[in-house]
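debug: dumping io for the single-chain case to check the tokenizer round-trip. Nothing else runs in this session.
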Amino acid sequence: MINGFRRELIYLWFYFTVLIEQIAPYWALGIVLGSIISVFGKEKIHKLFIVMQNNKLGVFGVIPASLLGIASPLCMYGTIPIAASFSQKGMRDDWMAAFMMSSIMLNPQLIIYSSALGTTALIIRFVSSLLCGITAGLCVRFFYRDKVFFDFSGFAEPKNRDTDPNIILRLLKNIWRNIKATGTYFLIGIALTALFQRYVPANAFASLFGSQRGFGVLMAATLGVPLYVCGGGTIPLLLEWLRSGMSMGAAAAFMITGPATKLTNLGAVKIVLGVKRFILYLLFVIFFALVTGLIVNVFVQ
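debug: decoded output
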């Protein structure tokens, strides 16, 4: 029995180390890139958003707003105070919705992490996040044209922690904060994937999430709610699920509902939406994920 237990530990350690070798470079590169953008580019991104007010973009403003949301390296609790300051400066709610929605879905670090899933998955993730932001902005524009959608009362612009006069130290401190914020979840994701590789039959998984493509999308969209904790932690799981037969549409649905319903993001969003609009937000996310997943399965085999 002891020898059997030891053998299982050896198997799991083997899977764990192989996954570390495969995923760790993307995680490390994402940490560095995210910190560089946060330290040197964050303010420029937010200033670009403010500059948009002076341009008569109208409804088309949701497109650059969504792109800037993806480019922003802040988490949702960091994004909301920034959005509150934009609102105080007169920023339109539809542009704000596009910015905040796409910021929830994707950021520069997660783009690098998602590269481990392959070019197709990365493109699908980027395009779906962009379209999700644009669609959210259009919904706010047309259904809340004469109403206030967000309530930012009580929010102030966040204090900038990247203030060390030494540029190198400023960057290193930001990198260390990102490592502490994501490292534990990354290792948990690797460990869960190693367990999945060892004990979950690939053919059973393929039957659930691959061959039953419509049902697989629904299941993946549902699983995105409880399982998604951190983007870096879910990449190893997604990589193995895709290898085991998960359809790309199911993966797309998971990549939408996951970050959009992550507990920390939900808590932040509920603060500025209130109960009724928060429920609309959840329905929008689930519907968009299902539609996206089904469309992806039609065009990506």
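debug: round-trip ok. The radius of gyration is 20 Å.
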